[in-house]
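Predicting holo structure, zinc ion bound.
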Amino acid sequence: MIKRAVLLILVAILFLALPGPAAVRAVDGLQVLESRVEVDFPMKVNFSLSATGDTDITDIRLHYTVDQMSHAEVISEVSLKFKPAILVEVEWSWDMRKTGGMPPGSRMSYWWTVEDARGERIETEPTVVQVDDVHYPWRSLSEGLLTLYWYNGDESFARELMDTAQQALVRMASYTGAELENPAEIYIYAKSEDLLGAMIFPQEWTGGVAYTRFSTIAIGISPDSLDWGKRAMTHELTHLVIHQVVFNPYNDLPTWLDEGLAMYAEGSLEPVFVNLLVQAINEDRLITVRSLSSPFSAYAEESILAYAQSYSLLDFIINNYGQSQMLELLNTFREGSGYDEALQKIYGFDMDGLNGLWLSYITR
Ligand SMILES: [Zn+2]
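Done. Tokens:
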């Protein structure tokens, strides 16, 4: 707090010391005639501006910032290309295929700066843009920190999903101590095709997606795939909670821990995973904990085994060491700790040590 006050005073002094025209000053001649924005979800946000002055306009910049969990406010700046003139119109599209997408319900804000040949400069007030998926007639249901959006199925369908989500949060807190810290949004698409249409680079097997920095999840669930949907929603919701809890600028989580917690939250391991795990144990081709700390393989079978092992690792850790140590582990990761260091600090073994203990647990 004190640091921030000192910083603000420093900024103020620097500002006073600046020679020449103040950074923001409206002048009679130079003015914005029209500023427009149009969201083309999920691919683009289109901006346009027309401005006029009594001398040539020479510089136009668009500034924007996205509302998401971050460690520092990131403001993007785009310098528009145009021919200097007294009346100018410019357009610019933010193409999310180049930058990565935003989930439905996210927010951004933008403003323009316009400068003329005499060095006069105006800056527009920031405008907030709501980035929604307007292809569907969303209804919503809120409880505690969760809001669920859906458009297919009746109220009881949404209620059942909300109850499942609330129970998942309670259960997760009981074995990890981790709780949702900020509001989270759940978007329920009617089917996976609809969900894929809301994503920039969907993979065809995507059933659900967690936008952890936006505290938003999106899943395709039809009323006749409710059982699958509840598991998928619980899985993605776990990612949101864990990422809120460990959010730090230095380090991420080992993949086996992130995915293992999400798999463990779903409930007992499904047969397809169990079978592959048993087979890998018998054939002595398990993946090491150290390898499971990196992103999982893109090959289906190898990836199923990675998820199955992650579940089993969490099953081992939670059953043997309990909730309070899991919370301490997450809090250690929140401080930006390395993987081996965090395990060593809380449990007294590193990733190789965990690998050995876990092997004797599953082959006992
Ligand atoms: Zn996952």
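The first helix runs from residue 2 to 17.
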